[in-house]
Design goal:
It is found in: Cytoplasm. With 246 residues, this protein is α+β, with helices and mostly antiparallel strands. It folds into three domains: 4-74, Integrase, N-terminal zinc-binding domain (Arc Repressor Mutant, subunit A, Orthogonal Bundle), CATH 1.10.10.200; 83-132 and 205-238, Alpha-Beta Plaits (2-Layer Sandwich); 135-203, Alpha-Beta Plaits (2-Layer Sandwich). It has helices spanning 7-21, 23-39, 47-58, 63-74, 106-119, 149-159, 180-189, 211-225; strands at residues 83-90, 96-103, 123-124, 134-143, 163-166, 170-175, 196-203, 207-208, 230-235, 237-238. Strands 3-1-2-9 form a four-stranded antiparallel beta sheet. The protein has a four-stranded antiparallel beta sheet with strand order 5-6-4-7. It has a two-stranded parallel sheet with strand order 8-10. The longest helix has 17 residues, at 23-39. It is globular. The two termini are 26 Å apart. The model has no long low-confidence stretch (mean pLDDT 88).
């Protein structure tokens, strides 16, 4: 099993904060709508839509909101026409960052992302400059105060997971994207309630920086994630041991 980064813990806590603020619903509605538009409104025939609905349910989004978002995507209801954009960037200390966005105004989003990066010591890179450092992986997290790592390891590997790790607060299960749903379903059927479940960009290796630089990178990531057009931010940052996760 691989060594666990504090990154999952930070994402977990950030997701909880976003959920309380209701901000996460806006991003999920966009993702559901785009998934329905590109692959159809039937979750059984649309893996991306199934995953988006899973995330929405995990965030306790009402069923009617999910159904409305699907109808906006299929054109049954009027909705904005979102474009998918991926930005590749460098943060303080040379940390690699991938920013995935859904926008109805590409010029606005590009300007805002560039401004946020510049303000926080980052810079926009060329297409392909950091994407080779990441791979798509299924990511399922569990509350380590509810389950032991050994419990999750046994069930996850039996269901087809690639890796399981924990930092004492969050247990992280990694899967191949093709087996993500099977692993998620297998763990659910065994009674394990996950905190988050998504297909994410996971770095092959992480870069270590000092505490001061790590704090700057985290502020940059938070600023990017607070932008309404930004759906997700992936990084190869390895948080130093002396950095306290609030």
């Amino acid at each position: 099993m691989s060594g666990h980064s504090k990154w999952a813990t930070i994402r977990h806590k950030k997701a909880a904060m976003d959920a309380k603020r209701g901000k996460v619903f806006t991003k999920l509605i966009k993702e559901i709508s785009v998934a329905a538009r590109t692959g159809g409104g039937d979750p059984e025939a649309n893996p991306r839509l199934r995953t988006a609905i899973l995330k929405a349910k995990a965030a306790n989004m009402p069923k009617e909101n999910i159904e409305r978002a699907i109808k906006k995507g299929t054109g049954e209801l009027e909705g904005a026409d979102y474009t998918e954009i991926v930005y590749e960037a460098y943060g303080p200390g040379g940390v690699a960052i991938i920013i995935e966005a859904l926008t109805d105004n590409k010029n606005r989003t590009a300007s805002e992302v560039r401004h946020i990066l510049s303000k926080h010591g980052g810079s926009l890179g060329e297409t392909g400059c950091v994407s080779y450092l990441f791979k798509k992986r299924g990511l399922i997290t569990f509350d380590a105060t509810k389950y032991t790592e050994d419990e999750i390891i046994e069930a996850a590997l039996e269901a087809g997971a690639e890796d399981v790790s924990s930092d004492g607060e969050v247990i992280e299960v990694l899967t191949d994207p093709s087996s993500f749903e099977e692993v998620q379903q297998g763990l659910t059927e065994k009674g394990f309630e996950y905190e988050t479940a998504e297909i994410s960009l996971i770095p092959d290796a992480r870069i270590t920086v000092d505490k001061e630089t790590a704090e700057k990178v985290l502020k940059l990531i938070e600023a990017l994630e607070d932008n309404d057009d930004v759906q997700s931010v992936s990084t190869n940052l390895e948080l130093p041991d002396d950095l306290t996760v609030e």
